[in-house]
Amino acid sequence: MQLSTSAPVLVIGAGIMGAGIAQTAAQAGHPVFLFDMREGAAAAARDKLGSTLQGLVAKGKLAADAAEATLARITPVATLAEAASATLVVEAIVENLEAKRGLFRELEGLLPESAVLATNTSSISVTAIGNGLKHPGRLVGMHFFNPVPLMKLVEVVSGLATEPAVAEAIFALSQAWGKTPVHTRSTPGFIVNRIARPYYAEALQLLLEQAAEPAVLDACLRAAGFRMGPCELMDLIGHDTNFAVTNSVYDANFQDKRFVPSLVQREMVDGGLLGRKSGRGFYRYPAGAPALPAFEPAEPPDGRSIVLHGRGPVAERLQTAMAHRTVIVQRNSDWTGFEVDGAQLRLTDGRTATALGADVAVFDLPIQHEPGQPLAYALSARASAAWAAAAPQWLRAAGFHAQRIADAPGLVVARTVAMLINEASDAVLQGVCSGAGADAAMKLGVNYPAGPFEWLARWDAAAVVRLLDALDGHHRGERYRVSPGLLRRL
Hints:
This protein has 20 helices and 15 strands. The protein is α/β, with parallel strands linked by helices. The protein folds into three domains: 9-186, 3-Layer(aba) Sandwich (Rossmann fold), CATH 3.40.50; 201-292 and 413-490, N-(1-d-carboxylethyl)-l-norvaline Dehydrogenase, domain 2; 306-404, no CATH class. α16 packs across α18 (452-458). The chain is elongated, with a radius of gyration of 26 Å. The two termini are 41 Å apart.
């Protein structure tokens, strides 16, 4: 099966997603029918798109004739019967199973059997949508990301009945539209909405435990390369939307504790603190997140006996910071960091500082190595006043903007990235996607600085498992259980 770039396309739903899909299809050369149940909505969307295209022309990002041709290819229609010649339908209506089922049943009576039916659903089972159709094999998920014209990722979602040739045709068509498609099975959350859950969930758990302020969590994760921290991202998405998706994934996975919704977010939704759309979420808007205090470099504190432990980029950075000191180097240690006169500053392995000893501080995983980057650390509850003052000074001497948080296992970045790796490993184990597909989806769909398996390659599977086991032991629940798919990589 092949869908040509001149084939007529029917887009149903003239909201933000539907209008973006119509624009993308028209720019690729398709004649596009645009339909919406709301009277006048399709025509209004086309008019708004015309203004958007003219804005691109004014900025020199689109030729005037290309803008005119794109708009000319889009025809608003008042009834579905007017689009009976379409060979591809892309549905972008409300996220409601019965509404989608009813629509596709109606379309089966209007369109030829050769027409491909695609749904842009972000969370509903494609298998369930196809239940009751005469020809469910031609139904496939074509999940775009907002804003559609700019975002490259398309999740091509196959339900149990989807014919492989149909999925391949949509995959090839997505490429022709300038997108990067990835195949996925129709499982809860597909790829992105499933694997991304820990990015929000770990921040919410730390907030629930009063381990850190939102601005600190956001700053630490931005320093790891994420474009937005989890708290400001949830404010942007809207807490009502984010909470609804979490609940959907949780329920669809039979209340698996890995996806349990947060009491923190439920309280915010109940209180109308929805983020940017309501003027207040974790932050007040338009001000947004407050800036952290400016980074202040420091000289390494005095110490009679300094021992550097471990190997790798983090150990090398610490050694550079102590270049003017006499340092004993122990490369074969089972931990990374250093000790000064018996006190220890250790890279987190998931255990709390308190569990490791008295004069102990643990610091977070520095994925990036930019000078002055915020980095979380925690102190043992039994640490002396002298070590409590010296530990952040050592981190500042190494170029880190030390941010003290409560003694939470895995701190911020390490536990978040470990959980993203774990969830991706489970998705691959269950045949939801390939490892390469998971990496591509997370980088293109939510702008992660790397894919979960790219992080794993830079880290170490055994270290990730140890950290997750420590989290699991600390919380004594199912949330942090290690995926068998990750264990296979040991």
